[in-house]
Amino acid sequence: MSIKRESHPIVGMHCAACKILIEKTVTGTPGVKKAVVNYAAEKLNVEYEEAETSIETIKNAVSDAGSYKLVTNDTSNPDHKNQTHNHAEMLKEEEYKKLKRNIVIAGIGTVPFLLMMLWPLIQKATGVHMIEEILGTITINRNGYEILNSNVLQFLIASIVLFISGNEIYKSALTSLKIKSTNMDTLISLGTFTAWAFSTYVTFFPEAFSSVSQKNETYFEAAVFIIFFILLGRLLESRAKRQTNTAVKSLLQLQAKAALVIRDGIELEIPVEQVIVGDIIIVKPGQKIPVDGELIEGNSSIDESMITGESIPVEKNAGDPVIGSTINKSGSFKFKATKVGSETMLSQIIKMVEDAQASEAPIQKLADKISGVFVPIVIVIAITAFLFWLFLAPVLGIISPENNVFQFAIYVATTVLIIACPCALGLATPTAVMVGTGNAARRGILIKNAEALETAYKITHIIFDKTGTITKGSPTLQNFKKYNSDNYEGSFVEDAIYSVEKNSHHPLADAVVAYLKDKENVNELSVSNFEDIPGHGIYAEIDNHKIFIGNSKLMQSKNVNLSEEIEKEAELLRKMGHTTSYVAIDSLPVAIFSISDTIKDKAYEDIAKIRSLGIKTIMITGDNKVTAEAVAKEVGIDEVISEVLPGDKAKKIIELQNQNPKYVVAMVGDGINDAPALAQANIGIAMGTGTDVAIETGDVVLVKGSLAKVYETLEVSKNTLKVIKQNLFWAFGYNIIGIPVAGGVLYPFFRILLSPIIASAAMAFSSISVVGNSLRLKFLD
Length: 781
Fold this sequence. Notes:
Alpha-Beta Plaits, 7-stranded mixed sheet, 6-stranded antiparallel sheet, 28 strands, membrane, nucleotide-binding, transmembrane
């Protein structure tokens, strides 16, 4: 069985209940294993069995659920992601324009009702006749009752607004009814249609309620204003949601459009989609680098800020990697393409951001459960309110039976249906996640899923791998001191060390060679009888001189007498966390040097910031205890776990997690041997400068590999969770307070009754306020 996982944009959603409806419909399609809709991102993530169904069948299922469109793509096209995004944007723009047209019609329709509402004030100020008197009446042959022409005019205007401007609302409600489901449009349709139907009946059959009231009120204006405010709210919400999802759009815009390649000795400018691995590409000053690759000729300064979040340009020379879509600031150069299409770093970043924005945070699950049953519950509440005010309220003396009780009950039920808003619940978490992950991406922090974003805020312990995380991961020679060198002419000691180390394959040999090459004017001498002595060091012969370079064990075995001064110097260097080596020529000690992995810039300050959040910091390493503690002391780490084998790092994390179930442990690493630990931790933070395996395993990827970005990740998580909680508090609070008030709970005590018009405005505002609050994350430092 082959399970396929795909993510596609959806056009046409306008409430959280739409999400539940689409998920229900798609999940019911044979062959679909899982369907999750992200309302804020407007995306469907679906897993299906290829042998049983296809994306076209799923596309039809989405359309069957209502006026929704699933935007699919041609995956054979190298630029399919960009094309899908553009197609979805085009369809959304069409929906947006259609919505604006409907709002204009509804807006024009509200003007006569506004005039009618203000007419008593105009009549009082000017003395003109009332609207009813100006328009007159029609007498009908049913006991002499009269139909008000003003009501007929209201009926005509309201019908146009409801069934033309609000057409999509009613269509959506009917479609959901056909598949035995409900959505937000069900509530709006029930409320407005009830108001319209009641008012129409009162208009053309005025005698219907004459026994209970001399004045039959109509609610055409309520239905019209409700449709207007609902549509206006959706327009404003749509505009706000666009701003929450600018991260992917801006990343797509970073992509270079063309590349200047050399093929068969000829320079050709081709679309970037046609670049293949191995192509030699020319980049001139000011141009974008088309794809990822390795610089092979020339040098330059490259602005990588759009990928790493670091503003300082990076110097590049032959052999250095270059990242697609970054900007060449100075010199011209040639590079060989190593990753193209969906394999480039920018494409991977876009995928990570899209996946994160389409994922759901655990905190959203409660809101989703409530949204799933929200509409039916509200309908039950509306019916209950209607029955209470129709039958019980008059008996209890809350409302006088002389009033038109039926009208009153209709009024209350309509207000309940209109004020209820699952949209705010549905938007509370995903809008904040979208803005939070997008904001993080611009800083060079790639959060792979919403759960990681939520978990980061709860971290109690952070375990740092030493090499490549706290240190730069590139050993350098820190100290070089000569002894008894007068016995040898000129720079023979340096030349001998350089020549012998150059023959060594030990990882630390490169540091010695690089140091001597840069600092000293060395010459390479002819080496013979080179020998690598495991666990001790190296041996070679130069001009009949025997050269020994290694640890104290090698010196002892070769009868090299180390003076007290040399031993003291070596001990001091070891306490500083350095790996120390001795050099002897013909059994005479001539030099001592130490190598250490340089600690990253501002590591102490960055660790201090993390500790200020109340998080315990731990360093894990395979180094010996003395070296490890020296490094930990220098950067201010709380605890050290040393001499740990690569395969045991994950076990140490399990041990810590088992100490207390409340511990939330993060692991920060960059190497292949960190991958199991990154996977075991509650949240794995991978340094982007590390291996592909570590990056793939991490929940969060720091593109630049800076410790400062660990702190920024925690801050992004804290700010995002704060906004999510504010959103949920508002969304729940609005509905918990709004629905009872709309149901008339205050009427017996204060004679306060909410208007359906005010309810529709409040409902629209509730969604807009949630999206607006999420947008604040863009501006939080």
